[in-house]
Amino acid sequence: MTEKRVVHVLTTVKGGAGKTETTDMLEAVLTLTGHRCTLVDVDDGNRGLARRVGVDNVVKLDWTSGIEDAPGWVAQYGSDSAHHLLFDLGAGISSSDTPVMAFLQTVWRMLHNEGARIIFYCIVSTNAPTSRFVERMVSTYGKIGTILIVHNDQDGSRAFPADIANRAEPQIDLRHQAPGIQEVRLRHRARLSAVIANPLPGYRLATALMATRVHAFARQLAAVSIIDPASLAALDGGSPPVPRLMYSTRRSSDATDERILCNGKLHDAHHALLANGLSDSELLTAAKAYRAACASWQSR
């Protein structure tokens, strides 16, 4: 079966809501499940995507692009039906009356008319308003594409605006990533798929935690028919198993393989100490093991 061209548009109403991070995750899902991606950085002021993955790994658009530029752009970047195009928009730009938005709307409609599937990702974080944002996206683009709400749990609170809970649009979660793991990811200026495929020395387990998050995101994308569920098999077996952790990895200094293993041993020792039905001797052994694990964790 011929693969259908897919256009992914990622947008949010407020800066810092995790739009570029979501683009990063989506690229990893698509690339690691066998798709080819073109990343388009439309944030002319910040260039967060280019800074994250490297300028050579993105197509940059400036905000002076106009409607007259659309046909040539589509011919250059939108002609391959096997490609996925990922547009990382600047915060709030989707509601602006600017030449670049007229350009983008023309590009998307041209691709839609040629049979492409268009998906608009409304990024909702724990610190971004949404009441009118999603509704505006539905009214503006609902006729040419699918509107998808992404909950980005930036701070781990899951305190999302209540006004989106009962909306009809499909909704998925991008789970929280510990700051220390995020620091490790940002040390490697490359696409996330490349970071996962080539972990930094000493950070294989931190990279495996990134991969685990990508896999969880991929499963949700499959559940709402953004990717083929059969493609999830390609994500299995590529990373080492990661231990369950006692503490969140708040600093990159705690994200080394050694520290993550130490954190995992502390978790396991604590779990063993709290097990039901331990005899006195077993409880003493578990307590000693927990004390040793604590000492190891605290000796930085």
UniProtKB/TrEMBL annotation:
Report the domain of life of the source organism. Bacteria
Gene3D superfamilies per the UniProt record, alphabetical: P-loop containing nucleotide triphosphate hydrolases
Q: Which InterPro entries match?
A: P-loop_NTPase
- What this protein is called in its record is ParA family protein
- Species of provenance: Sphingomonas chungangi
